[in-house]
Design brief:
By secondary structure, the chain is mainly beta. Helices cover about 10% and strands about 50% of the residues. It has an eight-stranded antiparallel β-barrel with strand order 1-2-3-6-7-8-9-12. A two-stranded antiparallel ribbon has the order 4-5. The longest helix is centred in the first third of the chain and has 16 residues, at about 1-15. The two termini are about 35 Å apart.
Length: about 250
C-alpha cells in the first residue's frame, strides 16, 4: 500500500505540472499502471495469478519512436501450495509453535520488475499523433520471492535467517514485448494505454539451500508472465519553437 500511495502522489504532482498544455509532437509521458499477471513456465510452479502496480516514464519523439523506463511491483497471495513446510509440520499437517499451539503462516507474492524500453507508435490520424497502436520491446531485471508473514516470536522455525530457506528468492536478466493501444486525444482528460505484455525472466535462485526440498536453492529458472496492463497517461510537453501549437479547452 505504501508503494501504491507513493505512485499516486507522484502522478498527482505530475498532473499539476501538466495542466497548462502546449501540444507538440513530442513529450514526456508519465504512466502509472496496473496489471494482471498470468505466470507460465517455472514461475507457474511457484505462483498463481497475481497483480502488479507500477510507473512508466516514456519520451515520444516527433518521428513516433518512444524510449522509456518501466517499473512494476508484484503483489498477491496466490502462492502454489507445494508442501513448503512439510519438514516442520506435525502429523496433522500444521505447524506447532513454541507454545505448543497450532500456527498458520501466510504466504504472499512479492517481486520487482524494471526494464528499459524502445518502441514505435503507429498513428493513423495525423492530427492526433499520440494515439494509435504501440509496439515496444525492453530488457531489464526480474526479481521475485515468497513473503512469509507469521509471528516470528512463537515460530522460531522461520525466524530471522531461517526465513531465507523458504522464500525461494530469485532474480536475473529479463526481456519483454508489448503491444497495445494508446488513446491520447489532445483536448480530452482521459488518456489511456491498454495492452498485453509478454515477459521472460532468465533468473536464478539466490538462496544457498532450500529447506523444504533439502537441496541447493541456486537453480536456474525460466520465468514468464503474460500481463494485461492498463495505465493513465500524464503528459509533460517539450517546447520547440517550430513545433508549438497552442490550444484551450
Amino acid at each position: 500500500m505504501k508503494r501504491l500511495f507513493t505512485i499516486f502522489c507522484i502522478s498527482l504532482c505530475i498532473t499539476s505540472f501538466g495542466q497548462s498544455e502546449m501540444r507538440t509532437n513530442q513529450a514526456f509521458m508519465f504512466i502509472p499502471h496496473y496489471a494482471m499477471q498470468i505466470p507460465g513456465t517455472d514461475l507457474a510452479d511457484k505462483f498463481g495469478r497475481f497483480s502488479s502496480i507500477g510507473l512508466g516514464i516514456d519520451y515520444k519523439f516527433k518521428n513516433n519512436v518512444i524510449i522509456g523506463l518501466d517499473y512494476d511491483w508484484y503483489f498477491g497471495n496466490n502462492v502454489v501450495d507445494n508442501g513448503r513446510f512439510s519438514n516442520i509440520t506435525g502429523p496433522s499437517g500444521v505447524i506447532i509453535d513454541a507454545n505448543g499451539d497450532f500456527s498458520v503462516i501466510r504466504l504472499d507474492v512479492r517481486g520487482n520488475y524494471g526494464t528499459v524500453n524502445l518502441g514505435y507508435l503507429w498513428s493513423p490520424n495525423k492530427k492526433e499523433t499520440f494515439s494509435g497502436i504501440l509496439v515496444m520491446g525492453g530488457a531489464g531485471v526480474m526479481r521475485h520471492k515468497v513473503d512469509l508473514f507469521s509471528s516470528q516470536i512463537t515460530i522460531p522455525q522461520v525466524n530471522d535467517d531461517y526465513e531465507y530457506g523458504y522464500d525461494q528468492m530469485a532474480y536475473g536478466l529479463a526481456t519483454k514485448q508489448y503491444i497495445g493501444y494508446q488513446r491520447f486525444v489532445s483536448k480530452s482528460r482521459y488518456r489511456l494505454r491498454i495492452g498485453a505484455e509478454f515477459n521472460q525472466g532468465f533468473t536464478q535462485g539466490r538462496r544457498t539451500w532450500d529447506f523444504n526440498a533439502n537441496k541447493s536453492g541456486l537453480d536456474k529458472r525460466f520465468d514468464t508472465t503474460i500481463a494485461f496492463k492498463i495505465g493513465f497517461i500524464v503528459p509533460v510537453y517539450t517546447k520547440y519553437a517550430d513545433d508549438e501549437e497552442f490550444f484551450t479547452d
